[in-house]
Design brief:
- By secondary structure, the protein is α/β, with parallel strands linked by helices.
- It folds into two domains: 13-196 and 383-408, 3-Layer(aba) Sandwich (Rossmann fold); 204-381, Rossmann fold (3-Layer(aba) Sandwich).
- Helices cover 39% and strands 16% of the residues.
């Protein structure tokens, strides 16, 4: 299939992002880049406004129809105590100067509020990566999860943007429930699951050699930021109970929680059976080395690594969602994993249940392979090419004529 790109004279959508390629913090930015490319594939003109944190070119067109404008980094200076208000003023100026036309796709609360205050409420689509109040609620319940805690001011911005934006686009029904519970139900909330890039040509043995793993090892993998909110202590406790004599843990990522987790691994006698890869430019370098991917997070708005791992043909295990007030586990695993089909769902508060699921997969390569086939099929159905046109129509967009004709061809 060949696409004919149409370069419009003015953008259809202005993406307002604090971080954007090549500046990356994690899966959110990676997903946003693929999303904007997919919008351009649909024939829409896409302009990105972002801070130039990576010292990249001020303007760039890395893909036909996708234009990036990187603005000087906001510096609150002596007004650091009021950084949110300074950022609000920064975004108002950026919108008025650099986004005079087109829809405004705000990816965080402050830029969404700025769009309204800049007189562009009618053009606003609010696409938050998380619910600030719900994330903070989880952070307050778990002592180690300090990275989940959010200021009261940012929660207020989030509430204000959610209630006033004409359209709210969120990544999961889990996240929709978080917003409804935190700020109240409203009309105009659209759930758009993230798409996933399709990959081919995985080399299982080469990947294992790279990380010093043997063909007969049962490799349990994790991919993500090494952060307390990812619940890796839950996974480590389950690994202690695993019966397979050649079980190995492959941890892909970097972050502030590594020293604490290294101590836990040492106390659990798992240090010699754990491989740390550090942060990888492409996590698909590690997926082929795994037998199963586990996402033990206590908070996820969506969980991009679930369909990502499935695209690599891996069954995925996740914790079930539990909105219990004392020990909440707010995740979207239930929306992406069909238990026993493309992965498994486990009790969110019982590491022994995760250990049992891992033992079952370790004992049956045939079961792992069957789940992996179903997982890869699910990931194919979740490609941006498949899911985006329907969502755009529901939000009032339509592909331009030339692009639509080429897509049909």
């Amino acid at each position: 299939m060949s696409l004919k790109f149409v370069q419009p004279s003015a953008p259809d959508i202005n993406i307002l992002a604090v971080r954007f390629w090549p500046d990356s913090y994690g899966g959110v930015e990676n997903n946003l880049f693929h999303f904007t490319r997919s919008l351009a594939d649909q024939g829409l003109g896409v302009s990105v406004l972002t801070e130039n944190r990576a010292n990249a070119a001020p303007t760039e067109t890395p893909y036909p129809g996708l234009n990036i404008r990187r603005l000087p980094v906001m510096d609150a200076g002596m007004f650091w105590r009021w950084a949110e208000w300074v950022r609000l003023a920064w975004w108002i100026g950026a919108i008025r100067k650099h986004a005079p036309q087109g829809k405004l796709w705000a990816t965080e609360p402050i830029s969404a509020v700025a769009a309204v205050l800049a007189g562009r409420k009618a053009d606003l689509i609010y696409n938050p990566a998380c619910c600030a109040h719900a994330m903070d609620h989880v952070g307050q319940r778990y002592a180690a999860a300090t990275t989940l805690r959010v200021s009261d001011r940012l929660i207020s911005f989030d509430r204000w943007a959610y209630l006033r934006a004409p359209q709210v686009v969120i990544s999961s029904y889990n996240l929709r429930e978080q917003f409804a519970s935190s700020y109240g139900k409203r009309e105009g909330v659209h759930v758009m699951h993230h798409g996933v890039q399709q990959r081919l040509g995985f080399d299982h043995l080469a990947a294992r050699r790279r990380w010093g793993l043997e063909p007969g090892d049962f490799v349990v993998g994790f991919v993500g930021r090494i952060d307390p909110c990812k619940g890796l202590d839950f996974l480590i406790t389950a690994m202690e109970r695993l019966q397979h004599p050649r079980a190995r843990l492959l941890l892909v990522g970097a972050g502030p929680d590594r020293p604490r987790l290294e101590r836990l691994l040492r106390f659990a006698n798992l240090e010699s059976r754990t491989v740390w890869t550090g942060k990888l430019a492409d996590p698909y370098d590690a997926y082929p080395a795994m037998d199963v991917k586990v996402l033990p997070s206590m908070y996820e708005a969506y969980g991009n690594v679930i369909p990502e791992a499935m695209a690599a043909g891996l069954p995925v295990i996740g914790r079930r969602r539990d909105a219990d007030d004392l020990m909440p586990v707010l995740v979207a695993s239930d929306e992406l994993i069909v238990h026993g089909h493309n992965g498994m769902l486990v009790d969110p508060h019982d590491p022994a249940d995760l250990a049992r699921a891992l033992d079952e997969l370790a004992a049956s390569p045939a079961l792992r392979h069957a789940m992996g086939r179903h997982a890869r099929q699910f990931a194919r159905e979740m490609s941006w090419e498949n899911i985006l046109p329907t969502h755009l129509r529901q939000m009032g967009f339509a592909p331009r004529a030339a692009a639509a004709a080429s897509l049909a061809a």
